[in-house]
Design goal:
- This protein has 184 residues and is α+β, with helices and mostly antiparallel strands.
- The protein has two domains: 35 residues; 141 residues, OB fold (Dihydrolipoamide Acetyltransferase, E2P) (Beta Barrel).
- The chain has a six-stranded mixed beta sheet. It has a five-stranded mixed beta sheet with strand order 9-1-2-11-10, with no helix packed on it.
- The chain is elongated, with a radius of gyration of 25 Å.
- The termini are far apart.
Length: 184
């Protein structure tokens, strides 16, 4: 008996339940292959107060413990705490609490600064606590945004990850407001 005829006889001898199980297995394998090929994005997650936020990891240069030496700079935006010197490089340090309408926090041992790159600008953001790096599918980045006219310009979209609602920061809008020195 030839091979194609043998496979055909085997398929005819399967029960309906076995045929369904084989089809489900085929679909599961196809779905898994599709999932593995879907582009993933790494997000650095952190807290400002009780709220969770995220930045794409490709915009993050480094994360470090907050240094006690923050030098105030007169005449800057109210969102600029000052400048920091980290490894012989000077960065403006932004505090986003007021901009995002969050209760100001006193820096603590868990406070960190994140040095980020946004186009040609490099600056630091003060955060209250770091959480972790999360991997999300690129299509999940097209999340919905709850209407909040006070801060919606500063949040690109919202993602639900492991039961936490994360606001993905819009650094371009944040920088624009900081540069103008006022709320948008």
């Amino acid at each position: 008996m030839s091979e194609p005829q043998l496979n055909n006889n085997r398929a005819e001898s399967l029960s309906d339940a076995e045929k369904i199980m084989l089809e489900l297995q085929r679909r599961a394998n196809a779905f898994q292959t599709e999932q593995e090929q879907e582009p993933m994005v790494s997000l650095l997650t952190f807290n400002l107060g009780e709220e969770w936020f995220a930045l794409p990891l490709d915009q993050v240069k480094l994360v470090a413990r907050l240094t006690p030496e923050v030098t105030p700079v007169p005449g800057t935006s109210k969102y600029v705490l000052g400048i920091i010197n980290y490894k012989s490089a000077i960065y403006p340090l932004l505090d986003l609490h007021e901009l995002l309408r969050l209760e100001p926090q006193v820096p603590s041992r868990s406070s960190r600064f994140i040095i980020v790159n946004q186009e040609q600008y490099t600056f630091a953001i003060l955060v209250d606590a770091m959480t972790e790096v999360k991997e999300v599918r690129e299509r999940e980045m097209e999340g919905q945004l709850r209407p909040n006219h006070d801060i919606s310009n500063y949040i690109r979209n919202e993602l639900s990850i492991e039961g936490h609602l994360l606001g993905l920061l819009n650094l371009e809008a944040i920088l624009k407001t900081v540069a103008e020195g006022s709320d948008a």
